[in-house]
């Protein structure tokens, strides 16, 4: 598996990075998504 740090390093090369910030596409409900970059590493780690 990957550590959270390895995951975030890999994500920094993703097409969803804008101005150096990793953006995530999250589901608010079925069929409704939102895009956010307002997640810190502890929130990401808690959900992996």
What does this structure look like?
With 48 residues, the chain is of the alpha+beta class. The protein has one domain (4-46). The chain contains two helices and four strands, in the order H-E-E-E-E-H. The protein has a two-stranded antiparallel ribbon. The chain has a two-stranded antiparallel sheet with strand order 3-4. The longest helix has 8 residues, at 4-11. The radius of gyration is 11 Å and the shape is globular. It starts with a helix and ends with a helix. The model has no long low-confidence stretch (mean pLDDT 88).
Keywords:
48 residues, alpha+beta, two-stranded antiparallel sheet, two-stranded antiparallel ribbon, 2 helices, 4 strands, 29% helix, 31% strand, globular
């Amino acid at each position: 598996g990957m550590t959270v740090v390895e995951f975030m390093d890999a994500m920094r090369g993703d097409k969803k990075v804008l101005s150096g910030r990793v953006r995530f596409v999250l589901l608010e409900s079925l069929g409704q998504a939102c895009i956010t970059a307002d997640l810190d590493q502890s929130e990401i780690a808690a959900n992996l």
